[in-house]
Amino acid sequence: MAVLKIHRLENLPAQLNPNTIYLVNRQTQPQRVELYVTDNTSTIVKSITTDSGIQAIMNSYLLGVSELVVVDNIATRDNLNPTGDIAVLVVDASNDPEVGSGSALYLYDMEANRWVKTTEYRDIDMSVIPNFNWEAIEW
Predict the structure, then answer these.
(1) Over the stretch 96-119, which tens digit does the pLDDT of each residue have?
(2) Cα–Cα 20 to 30 A to 79, which of 58, 68, 114, 126?
(3) CB–CB of 67/81 below 8 Å?
(4) Long-range CB contact pairs, 14-18, < 8 A, 24+
(5) CA separation (Å) from 102 to 40, 42, 78, 90?
(6) Each residue of 74-101: pLDDT tens digit?
(7) Does an H or E element contain 117, and which?
(8) What is the pTM of this model?
């Protein structure tokens, strides 16, 4: 059985360790923590998307999109009559069974005449260990 290690750092190291959780608290964003998890080969297998990652995702989704529309709910999105490939941010996408709760970004595919969900946005709930002390995590 592998031992899971936790490291608290200001930057993700170039050389990663196997079976490790990295908590990255950059000086430029002191109120945020990036989370990365490696497998037994030191490959990142899971991470929480960073600001730059979100921007890259948005840029790739929006290439070729002629319009970005923000609507309150799925019913309002469904009443749109797109005349081109558009992106729609649905603030309350809870009527989409794939979303459950929160917001979602959809692209309209004119060729297929359908909405394609690309991204979901939800709050992240975390349970914190009682008496948890961020400073107690060793470097």
Answers:
(1) 988 888 899 998 888 888 898 988
(2) 58
(3) no
(4) 15/42, 16/42, 16/43, 16/44, 17/42, 18/42
(5) 34, 33, 17, 9
(6) 999 999 998 887 889 999 999 998 888 8
(7) strand 114-121
(8) 0.47
